[in-house]
């Protein structure tokens, strides 16, 4: 039996078992009469889940107080009742944690203390977890990120963020470690619990309702062989969203010849060399030569040098993305406690997601063009065009729907055995498998050239430029043509798998002085397989036909021009076009895909070196053996308690990397195996200067293995015009960081405290993009293996011998990247002013500096300042919480974007308000709590500029989401 069939079988059994468990456990609870109003001491579970948000804050404060290391926690009440769509959003309120959001606003990944997502280690119940999905829209997720949108908050009881390590922790997180603790039956005392939740959400940009629901049932029994517990849970979400915005695919300038021209770099397009047909305004005559003198006269007030460096969006386009993200998640957990010395558990989690989206954009063609005439161009002090008219422009529709399916299954049995008061043995085995499949077709066709279509361009300080055509781009009969178009049928499959075993022995007082040592083995692998049948589908659809889904690829691949014999000839193209939702046309998908036999070409798609996202095909597998020793103790210094943790962890990793390479037209796979090891010492100390004042310090070394995407052999292009290429470097060394932390907290009573932490990280082995511009002919990639669009773009730049390609390759930086940061946290109940009121607030500041020789190292994707504030009131069954999270502007890429040496892609500062309000009816059956949640109250957009503030790279408006819900328990 294949592994995929085994996984499917296990998955079906688990789903059935989960549902059966939920039903069996629920029956006794449903049979009981409704509980009377509580007057007795609440049960343990009620202290976490029912008694309120203030109790969860107190639990988090106590956990921080008892920890020796720098740790923050979020407990069940805080997780389950905030308006969080998944675990990532729950983590966003912890100091030092930043969130990466999908373009629809939903949280996706987290970063900790000034380093990117791949530096954060994500654990599920203490063991490694990997998810095969490809990340945010238009990203590749080829590194070590873990998408958290498959993990619903309802199925978890605790989140821990470890900002300083202990030797017993799994290595791999230079920035920190996040552990997600799923629900277990003995979390819920009193014999049995049944908790339900239902919500209906509405995004103000979407037409439909988004329902969500969860059901968790738990039951414990006393039996002759000990206490036994069983828990089953299910959480289902159907999220509809529509996101509108603007995209540019970068910015660039024209390639001109004059003294002092083209200082910026880029030079991605040319102005027309003669006046095109159809241009008769501004005193121009078709066929008239266009030289620098004429350009100067057409653009008064702008010098030739300014015109040559004037920045325009390469493909300025309005965008529209609309669809549904579905998620079904199940948890099944069993616990057995035969006596007070032994606890055995088996945790299982299965989650699957499916995403179906239509995505369309209308592109103004600047990239690689040579046919426009600029008139009245003005630029600002940054060299960005603020206004102008561009005669003889062209647009193309890019219709690119996508379907995604992802699933993850995690099995996690373990035990804790205490044979006596001074020995404890913990053991755990873990296995997970995640599968992801994405199909991403593209259909592209153009407005005709030389048809009198002009663009009026304005970029006067708004969020993004206004690009207005003098003809109706929402008119199916405008004269759309195949010429210069293309179709693509591309897919991508990913598989990740983890397996491991961890054993820890503690000698001494489990919560006091002890000696610990342990061993661990982890095996983590990921395979990305790209599939592409575009050449055959294009030949069949618009290249004259004569092929089948499995026939040999035509050589050369015919251009997409709708010639005779095509399944969709030029004469019939207009019949497949219809008006769109955003002021420009769209495609009749069902008819077009049926008549072009899309599904057959997709089903027959052969292997490809790179996917539609730019992700490279390849395999990485890492087998790591680790061992550690750790001493925990307490002593008195100046008559005050001092707790400490001291240890060291040794690891050894065998790494195998495999990637495709084509030489002389023959596809082969290059494999490389390496081994590296290291010793990771750690020290944490907490000193109680007073009963309410704790001072902490920590010193440690941490490691994160190199990014797999930067190590795969072979060459991939990151843009359709073959202007930028990436080459792997299998010789990259791991990142290592020496970390120093100092801080403390003043505990003001109850859940209240004021905390300060200062941290310093010194990273070596940090990678940067090494950039080199070479002729295409020196790249070692056969020209005839490029796509038609890439071949055409290279020919427009002078052919394979003259056209240059910017090649990027990750290299280890010679210097040291130092990250300095400060965190301030204040949790304060305000009962002395208003009983039940209070607030939490935290702020984090991060700065980074590079020293030493070589290219400057720089961490990207980090906001120098972040803060979040939550005000709350909770009394008499009513709860109201208003929260605000703010992230400063950040650099999101390395330099050298689009061939401009200084250009980086950045992200604007952004703040988001969220509201959660609810009321619990204690006297009704199940004590229902009715809730109102509002996410992104002020409809804050996501905006990224390209180097200059006035050059919008992307702009997305996710809208506001309102959710009404009810939850209760039996």
From TrEMBL:
TonB-dependent receptor plug domain mapped to chain residues: 64-177
Keywords attached to this entry: Cell outer membrane, Membrane, Receptor, Signal, TonB box
Source domain of life: Bacteria
Listed Gene3D superfamilies: TonB-dependent receptor, beta-barrel domain, TonB-dependent receptor, plug domain
Residue ranges, compositional bias (Polar residues): 715-735
Stretch list, region Disordered: 705-735
Keyword Chaperone part of the UniProt annotation: no
GO CC annotation terms, alphabetical: cell outer membrane
Compartment annotation: Cell outer membrane
Family: Belongs to the TonB-dependent receptor family.
Protein name as catalogued: TonB-dependent receptor
Organism, as annotated: Caulobacter sp. 602-2
Species classification: Bacteria, Pseudomonadati, Pseudomonadota, Alphaproteobacteria, Caulobacterales
């Amino acid at each position: 039996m294949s592994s995929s069939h085994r996984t499917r079988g296990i998955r079906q059994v688990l789903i059935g078992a989960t549902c059966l468990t939920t039903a069996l456990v629920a029956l006794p609870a449903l049979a009981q009469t409704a509980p009377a109003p509580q007057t007795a001491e609440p049960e343990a579970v009620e202290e976490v889940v029912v008694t309120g948000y203030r109790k969860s804050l107190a639990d988090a404060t106590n956990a921080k107080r008892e920890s020796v290391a720098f740790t923050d926690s979020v407990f069940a009440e805080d997780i389950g009742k905030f308006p969080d769509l998944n675990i990532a959003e729950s983590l966003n309120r912890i100091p030092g944690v930043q969130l990466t959001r999908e373009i629809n606003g939903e949280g996706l990944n987290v970063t900790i203390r000034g380093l990117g997502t791949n530096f954060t280690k994500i654990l599920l119940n203490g063991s490694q977890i990997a998810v095969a999905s490809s990340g945010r829209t238009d990203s590749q997720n080829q590194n070590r990120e873990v998408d958290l949108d498959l993990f619903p908050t309802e199925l978890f009881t605790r989140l821990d963020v470890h900002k300083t390590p202990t030797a017993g922790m799994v290595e791999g997180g230079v920035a920190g470690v996040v552990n997600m603790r799923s629900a277990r039956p003995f979390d819920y005392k009193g014999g049995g619990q049944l908790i339900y939740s239902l919500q209906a959400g509405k995004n103000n940009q979407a037409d439909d309702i988004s329902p969500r629901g969860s059901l968790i049932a738990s039951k414990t029994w006393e039996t002759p062989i000990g206490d036994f517990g069983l828990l089953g849970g299910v959480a289902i979400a159907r999220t509809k969203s529509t996101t509108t915005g603007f995209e540019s695919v970068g910015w660039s300038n024209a390639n001109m010849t004059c003294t002092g021209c083209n200082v910026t770099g880029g030079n991605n397009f040319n102005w027309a060399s003669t006046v095109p047909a159809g241009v008769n305004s501004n005193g121009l005559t078709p066929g008239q030569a266009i030289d620098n003198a004429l350009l100067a006269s057409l653009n008064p007030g702008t010098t030739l040098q300014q015109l040559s460096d004037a920045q325009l969006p390469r493909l300025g386009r309005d965008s529209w993305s609309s669809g549904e993200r579905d998620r079904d998640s199940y948890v099944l957990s069993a616990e057995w406690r035969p006596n007070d010395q032994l606890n055995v558990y088996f945790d299982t989690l299965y989650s699957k997601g499916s995403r179906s989206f239509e995505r369309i954009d209308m592109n103004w063609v600047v990239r690689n063009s040579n046919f426009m005439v600029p008139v009245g161009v003005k630029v600002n002090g940054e060299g960005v065009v603020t206004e102008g008219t561009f005669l003889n422009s062209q647009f193309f529709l890019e219709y690119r729907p996508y379907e995604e399916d992802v699933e993850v299954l995690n099995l996690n049995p373990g035990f804790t055995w205490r044979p006596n008061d001074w020995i404890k043995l913990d053991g755990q085995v873990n296995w997970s498998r995640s599968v992801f499949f994405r199909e991403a077709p593209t259909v592209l066709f153009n407005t005709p050239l030389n048809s009198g279509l002009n663009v009026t361009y304005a970029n006067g300080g708004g969020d993004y430029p206004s690009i207005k055509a003098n003809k109706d781009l929402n008119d199916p009969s405008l004269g759309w043509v195949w010429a210069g178009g293309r179709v693509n049928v591309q897919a991508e499959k990913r598989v990740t798998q983890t397996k491991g075993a961890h054993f820890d022995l503690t000698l001494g007082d489990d919560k006091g002085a002890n000696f610990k040592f342990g061993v661990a083995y982890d095996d983590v692998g990921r395979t990305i397989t790209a599939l592409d049948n575009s050449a055959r589908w294009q030949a069949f659809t618009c290249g004259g036909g004569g092929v089948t889904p499995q026939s040999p690829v035509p050589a050369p691949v015919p251009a997409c021009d709708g010639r005779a014999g095509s399944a969709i000839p030029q004469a019939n193209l207009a019949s497949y076009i219809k008006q769109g939702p955003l002021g420009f046309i769209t495609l009749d998908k069902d008819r077009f895909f049926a008549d072009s036999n899309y599904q057959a070409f997709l089903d027959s798609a052969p292997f490809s070196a790179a996917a539609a996202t730019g992700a490279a095909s390849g395999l990485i597998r890492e087998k790591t053996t680790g061992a550690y020793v750790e001493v925990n103790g307490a002593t008195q210094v100046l008559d005050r308690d001092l707790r400490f943790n001291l240890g060291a962890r040794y690891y050894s990793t065998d790494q195998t990397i495999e990637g495709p390479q084509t030489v002389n037209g023959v596809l082969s796979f290059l494999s490389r195996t390496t081994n590296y090891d290291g010793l990771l010492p750690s020290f944490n100390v907490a000193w109680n200067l007073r009963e309410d004042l704790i001072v902490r310090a920590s010193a440690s070394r941490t490691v994160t293995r190199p990014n797999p995407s930067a190590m795969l052999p072979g060459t991939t292009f990151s843009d359709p015009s073959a202007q930028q290429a990436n080459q792997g470097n299998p010789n990259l060394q791991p990142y290592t960081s020496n970390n120093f932390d100092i801080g403390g907290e003043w505990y003001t009573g109850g859940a209240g405290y004021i905390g300060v932490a200062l941290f310093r990280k010194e990273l070596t082995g940090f990678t940067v993009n090494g950039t080199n511009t070479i002729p295409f002919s020196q790249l070692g990639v056969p020209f005839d293996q490029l796509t038609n669009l890439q071949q055409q773009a290279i020919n427009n730049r002078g052919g394979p011998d003259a056209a240059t390609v910017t090649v990027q390759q990750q290299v280890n930086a010679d210097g040291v990247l130092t990250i300095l940061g400060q965190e301030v946290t204040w949790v304060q109940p305000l009962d002395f002013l208003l009983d039940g009121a209070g607030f939490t607030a935290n702020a984090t500041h991060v700065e980074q500096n590079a020293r030493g020789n070589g290219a400057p190292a720089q961490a990207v994707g980090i906001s120098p300042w972040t803060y979040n504030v939550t005000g709350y009131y909770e009394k008499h069954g009513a709860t109201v919480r208003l929260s605000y999270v703010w992230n400063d502007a950040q650099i999101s890429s390395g330099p050298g974007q689009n061939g401009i040496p200084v250009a980086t892609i950045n992200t604007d500062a952004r703040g988001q308000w969220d509201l959660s309000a609810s009321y619990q009816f204690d006297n009704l059956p199940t004590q229902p709590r009715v809730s109102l949640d509002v996410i992104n109250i002020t409809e804050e957009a996501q905006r990224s500029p390209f180097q200059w503030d006035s050059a919008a790279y992307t702009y997305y408006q996710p809208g506001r989401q309102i959710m009404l819900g009810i939850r209760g328990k039996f």
